[in-house]
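Why should sequence recovery work at all? Because a backbone constrains its sequence more than one might expect. Tight turns favour small or flexible residues, buried strands favour hydrophobic ones, and helices have their own preferences. The token representation captures these environments compactly. In the example below, the structure is given first.
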């Protein structure tokens, strides 16, 4: 059904939802209809949750992640070592690493990756926050957990140069990349094999 033929209130909600990442016009209309079919109390709860989302969440001034308090519960945890700082591009990457429960250091959320073609330069990311963390004297190892895309590689290179020039006493490492468990070399693509060979480990 074309948008102009929708009832006004439904069309307005669908148009607003369509502005969200990953939601096209059809998906936004389906979500709008799902909201319409909800019991009134449930729909009102969703509305209240959206209205209070920004009021209840803040940005941690120490790591740049979303939190209900500043500092966030990770930065405020005395059981975390400040010597290891894990650099991630986005908050959901932090969540993925935390779900494993293996890392006991702290994080810094960069807010994205360098992407000149998309107009994302160093000034758009949290490099000033990273410099403050590195200048604190607490960090001994910076772990790059940025992914394996071209933008991630460019960002990692930028960070490495920044650390080598301004903070030479800090070790830099990155998440291991390459052949996944259970896979055979003959089925790997060239980039995966390149990463595997480049980041090979001693045995």
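From this structural description, the recovered sequence reads:
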């Amino acid at each position: 059904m074309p948008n102009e033929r929708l009832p006004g209130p439904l069309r307005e909600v669908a148009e607003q939802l369509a502005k969200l990442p990953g939601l096209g016009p059809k998906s936004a209309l389906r979500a709008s209809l799902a909201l319409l079919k909800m019991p009134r109390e449930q729909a009102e709860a969703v509305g209240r949750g959206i209205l209070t989302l920004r009021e209840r969440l803040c940005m941690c001034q120490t790591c740049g992640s979303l939190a209900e308090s500043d500092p966030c519960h990770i930065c405020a945890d005395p059981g975390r070592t400040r010597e290891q700082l894990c650099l991630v591009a986005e908050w959901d990457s932090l969540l993925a690493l935390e779900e494993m429960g293996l890392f006991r250091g702290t994080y810094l959320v960069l807010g994205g990756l360098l992407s000149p073609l998309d107009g994302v330069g160093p000034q758009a990311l949290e490099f000033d926050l990273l410099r403050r963390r590195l200048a604190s004297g607490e960090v001994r190892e910076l772990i790059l957990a940025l992914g394996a895309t071209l933008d991630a590689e460019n960002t990692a290179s930028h960070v490495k140069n920044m650390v080598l020039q301004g903070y030479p006493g800090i070790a830099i490492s990155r998440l291991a990349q390459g052949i996944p468990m259970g896979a055979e070399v003959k089925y790997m693509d060239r980039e995966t094999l390149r990463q595997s060979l480049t980041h090979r480990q001693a045995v």
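A few observations help interpret the result. The radius of gyration is 22 Å.
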